[in-house]
Design goal:
Order of helices and strands: EEHEHEHEHEHEHH
Number of strands: 7
Oligomer: single chain
Distance between the termini: 17 Å
Shape: globular
Radius of gyration: 17 Å
Helix content: 25-40%
CATH architecture of the largest domain: 2-Layer Sandwich
């Protein structure tokens, strides 16, 4: 494992990280996330201060790909800064997930889906609310289908999963000439959700 002591963004440079507490998972580069949590007393039981700020060096996913190679799976959980991170990626990867805090970041989430669709128009989407319960959708959806489902989502926080077209075409063998069976697809969903839960743990 190689640890890169930089934050991810859409460009290499220096940006401000807002700090609620040292080491807190809520610390962020997103000014919108800060403004949201300073007034939201319900999401975490109290409004947060983000009294400290620190300048941090940033890099991009594309820069990391060039240096270290393209990974099999990328998890993006950066407290409202997901769109900026994805803007720094110029090629597809087999699997990727990003967090969406709703409803405040629904526009950014939809834009993330759009960006991934531009990288691979045939890529597919699903999402989880709780990894222990597996995927929320019975099948993977196209970008257009998923955007409609995402618009209707009422959960406060979800993890959106995306898989490239090359992965969906080769990873799972079709049961018939018409594509994977429902049972195969759901089994793959559960395997990926379980792997994701292991990463979080």
């Amino acid at each position: 494992m190689i640890v890169v002591g930089k934050a991810l963004s859409d460009q290499c440079g220096v940006e401000s990280m807002w700090i609620d507490e040292p080491g807190s998972a809520k610390n962020t580069l997103s000014q919108k996330w800060v403004n949201t949590l300073r007034t939201d007393k319900e999401r975490f039981g109290q409004a947060l201060n983000f009294a400290a700020r620190k300048e941090v060096e940033t890099t991009t996913l594309e820069k990391l790909f060039t240096t270290h190679g393209v990974p099999f799976f990328i998890k993006i959980d950066v407290e409202g800064f997901e769109l900026s991170v994805l803007r720094g990626m110029k090629r597809s990867v087999p699997y990727l997930s990003f967090e969406a805090n709703l409803p405040e970041f629904k526009p950014e989430g939809l834009k993330c889906v759009e960006l991934l669709g531009q990288l691979d128009p045939e890529g597919q989407f699903n999402y989880v609310v709780d990894c222990r319960r597996g995927f929320s959708l019975e099948r993977w959806l196209s970008g257009g289908e998923f955007s409609e489902a995402f618009q209707q989502c009422t959960d406060k926080s979800i993890e959106v999963f995306w898989r490239s077209s090359s992965t969906s075409a080769t990873q799972f063998k079709p049961a018939t000439a018409f594509g994977p069976s429902k049972e195969q697809d759901l089994s793959a969903n559960n395997d990926l959700a379980s792997a994701h839960e292991s990463i979080e743990g």
